[in-house]
Amino acid sequence: MIGATIPFEGKDYLVETLLGKGKSAFSYLIAHETEKLVLKVIHDEPCPYYEFQDKYKSEIAAYNRLINLGVNVPGLKGVNEEKRWIFKDFIDGDTAAQHIATNQLTDYHFAELFKMAETAKEAGLNLDFFPTNFVLGCDKLYYVDYETNPYHEDWNLENWGLFYWVNNEGMKKFLETGDAAAINADQEKGIPIKEPFVSEVKRIIQKFSKI
Known about the structure:
The chain has helices spanning 55-69, 96-101, 107-122, 157-165, 168-177, 198-208, and strands at residues 5-8, 11-21, 25-32, 35-42, 76-80, 85-89, 94-95, 125-127, 134-137, 140-143, 148-150, 184-186, 191-192.
C-alpha cells in the first residue's frame, strides 16, 4: 500500500509509511502537500487473547464515546465504509513507547495517563493502555487508538498496562527487535512481565491515582 494514492475529500493523498499494526488495523501516514492524516485500514487477523465484534463499527463507536468523555484523541476526519477505512488527524510526536525506551517519561505523562484511565473507569471502560497507543504531541498526551472495552480489573491500567510503562529495557528491545518476549510473560494471553516491577508500579499508583 505504501506509494499508493488515496482519494479523500477531493484530494489525492500519498501513502508515505506504515505507522504501526495493532490488533484490529494497520495505520498509515498519508499526505497531500503539507497536510498529513492517518489512514487506518481494518484487517481481519485473529488475536489469541481478544475476541472482536465488528472492528470497523467498534472503532467509530469508541471514538464517539471517547470524545463525549473528553479524552484526548485524534479527530475523526472521515470514513470509507465500503473499504472499512478510517481517516484521522495525525498527531506529530513520539509514542509513549519511545519515551519509555529512552527513559524520558515525566510526571506529566503519568498524570495524564491516570486522568484518562480514571475518566474511562468512571464510564465503565478500559482503554488499551499499551504504550504505542499514546503519543505526546504539542505538549499534550493523546490516546491515538480509539479502542475501548468494558471495564475489567485484570485489564486496567494498574493491573495490566502500567507494567509496560515501567519496563524501559524491555520496551527498548521490543521496539528494536519486535520480540514481545522482552515485555510479555505470556505472549498468547498478552500478559506483561510483572515481578521485577511490582514496587515501581505501586509507587506510581500511590503518586498519581485519584480513585
